[in-house]
Amino acid sequence: MPFYPALLDLSGRLVLLVGGGRVAARKLASLLEAGARVRLVTPALCQEARELAGLEGVELIERGFEPGDVEGAWLVISATDDEDLNRSVAVAAEAARVFVNVVDVPPMCSFIVPAVVRRGELTLAVSTGGASPAAARRLRQGLQAQFGPEWADYLAILRAARQKLTAQGRPAAENRPLFYQLVDSQLMERVRAGDAAGVDEVMRAVLGPGFTLKELGQSLGRDAAREREGA
Amino acid sequence: MSTTLHWITLIAYVVGSLISLGFLIRQRQGLYRMGLALLWVGFGLHTLALAAAWVEGGVLPATSLRQSLDVFSWALMGAVLVVNLSLEVKILGALVGPICVLLMLAASVLPAVPVVKTAAFKSAWVIVHVVSIMAGYGLLALTCLGGVLYLAQDRALRAKTMGPVFKRLPSLSRLDSLSQSSLLAGFLLMTIGLISGAVYAQMALGSYWRWDPKEVWALITWLLYAALLHTRLVQGWRGRRGAWLSVAAFAALVVTFLGAGLLMPGYHSFSSMADLGGPRP
């Protein structure tokens, strides 16, 4: 049965996470990144998980899992290697009609998490439906090479231009071909080359004056710089 | 008097066009303003020249191809200058100026036919007919030019490198607005022109439609522009497709204006203007 792909808005929503190991720590990090509030239920925490559990938005309950823990959660993730515990989490979630993911045990999952590449607002999700996590991983690495950090700037520019243009109140039908013109133009090449003057020139040629990087409050290479700093 | 004014107009247009071309190449704002001012002066003189020709001939000066070309170049220049007031497309002067110069030169070298003083050309209906058709033609020529420039800019944008053309062309959004407003105004004027012509034909010839070649071609042209407007406003055909269509529709307009006047027999052809009668009592 094929999965139905969706992107979830978890900001401010409660997610139950069961487990305290390295995998649980990784899941906790990605949940916090999506802005979720996390109820973390585990009798024991590894170092990484403990650091993250101190962050805002995490409600730490240091004991074993009880079926009542799924109360109020939008999503449940079980990241333990205890098969009986995983099963009872899955059953409790199923009973409460909450989607549950048991890490590395596809048959117990009502949702699975794809391999993800993020470039600013671009999200590329790859899933083999659990057939081969290895293949999904290789595919993700290929996409990472193919879609460089310039996509973050590129999309930020397009978003800013779009907001500014629609704020001018022209009918949508009038603006639509302009957006297509932008994505069909050399804008991407200019962003990738870090050529700010070239970007301004393309924006002027399509949208007219008032759409330079400076006027849109954008700049190039922020993401690349961030990556270098982080490295 | 009208001849003298005609030549002074031509001189103003030539100088204005040259300065505007200078702006196109050097991109100096001072040159742009100077060229535009000269074209305005030329347009004022041109208006005076046509008015003088009207007074001298006693009828609307559009009875021969020579005069029609002159009126058309006046309408085109007027359309550009007026549209430019609200939608500044700075390179238009450099493009339209030379076209108007060529049209006026063509008008100058064509044989001067004696002005036909038929009653038809004194009728208010015919004056409205000719003036609105001509003004409409000028605006629709501008729509076509906007389309051509749009396609050129579009091509430059898709190219891998940014050439000098790219920097000088107006933005696509500006060109699209130019095409849109000139199309709306031009279509409206053309419609008024066709209706007033039909009204006069009903008065003078007893039927508002006679399958004259020019009438037929004008209808084809009008339908093309109606389709262009429809696809643009209703189906949102802007951009490339709209630009191509506006160029194609203008080709039909040229056939109507020149072909039907020169090559096809009919009461609209310039050679038979003399036979046009006035309204029947």
TrEMBL record, chain A:
Keywords: NAD, Oxidoreductase, Porphyrin biosynthesis. It holds the Pfam family Sirohm_synth_M. Pathway: Porphyrin-containing compound metabolism; siroheme biosynthesis; sirohydrochlorin from precorrin-2: step 1/1. GO terms for biological process: siroheme biosynthetic process. It catalyses: precorrin-2 + NAD(+) = sirohydrochlorin + NADH + 2 H(+). Its EC number is 1.3.1.76. It is an enzyme of class 1 (oxidoreductase). Residues 119-144 form the Siroheme synthase central domain. One of its GO terms (molecular function) is ferrochelatase activity. PANTHER family: SIROHEME BIOSYNTHESIS PROTEIN MET8. This is precorrin-2 dehydrogenase. It comes from Desulfoferula mesophila. The lineage of its organism: Bacteria, Pseudomonadati, Thermodesulfobacteriota, Desulfarculia, Desulfarculales.
Automatic annotation (TrEMBL), chain B:
It comes from the Bacteria. Residues 68-267 form the Cytochrome c assembly protein domain. GO terms for molecular function: heme binding. InterPro entries: Cyt_c_assembly (IPR002541), Cyt_c_biogenesis_CcsA (IPR017562), Cyt_c_biogenesis_CcsA/CcmC (IPR045062). Keywords: Cytochrome c-type biogenesis, Membrane, Transmembrane, Transmembrane helix. GO terms for cellular component: plasma membrane. Pfam families: Cytochrom_C_asm (PF01578). GO terms for biological process: cytochrome complex assembly. The chain crosses the membrane at residues 6-25, 37-55, 67-85, 92-113, 125-152, 183-204, 216-234, 243-264. It is found in: Membrane. It is a multi-pass membrane protein. NCBIfam families: cytochr_II_ccsB. This is C-type cytochrome biogenesis protein CcsB. The lineage of its organism: Bacteria, Pseudomonadati, Thermodesulfobacteriota, Desulfarculia, Desulfarculales.
